[in-house]
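Reference record
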Amino acid sequence: MPICIPNQLPAREILERENIFIMNEIRASHQDIRPLRIAILNLMPTKIVTETQLLRLLSNTPLQLEITLLQTATHVSKNTSSEHLNTFYRDYDEVKNEKFDGLIVTGAPVENLDFEEVDYWEELCGIMDWARTNVHCSLYICWGAQAALYHKYGIPKYPLDKKMFGVFEHDVLHPSHELVRGFDEVFWAPHSRHSQVKEEDIHTCKKLEILVKSKEAGVFLIASKSRRSFFITGHIEYDYNTLALEYERDVCRGLSIEVPKYYFPNDDPKNRPVNTWRGHAHLMFANWLNYFVYQETPYDINKILPSE
């Protein structure tokens, strides 16, 4: 089934080449069903790349989605053209009176800053507070997950001695939970971050439970017991070459960076990396949309109840 996005969005051409069903806006307007309204707050600098990654995963379900791309008004993106942002993105003030079935908040390259030092922190907190009453279920990724855990539950982040960088093995702790339904007991997923949340801090919060963790990379997937918020500490949405591009970027900048672990065949950056997490990425997003958005959100979107 289709995902409905603006006709001129750059992701459209890429996804259509991959035979992903993209419905045009005119056809969608004549469908006699209510599409799920999903907002994506894109905090990543490479916004078009992130849009494409997330839309690819969201499209792999039998549900019709209506996507709204959001940006912060208090931060000017240096890596995406103003034309693209003005055409396809909306600010919080433009949607604050609207309701959404789901919200995704991406990561951001600001991990070395204290939360309060981030120039859009106050605005982000306002959006997370707004989501409590205007969004049925939220999904937070990497730094977005750390920010939400801190703002909503007071859980701090801790700097790492070196970057957690690579594709790591993970163990499913609660295989009966719908978000990981169909997962292998052990699976691989990418991480790219300079900070972490600690397992012991999560356990002290009775509103949260850890669904997945890695012996090497730590906590990976956290769920609120209310079923209204989920937190991914890694980047399961990444393409096969995203870590390679990050590595090449840092090498060109002269930064001290290790080769991402368990990623390049034979740990040789000259070898093409293999995507070992794509299937679980699609399954996670499909489970989120099906079990926690589609099956639980009210048909009348204005009847969404406040969450924790």
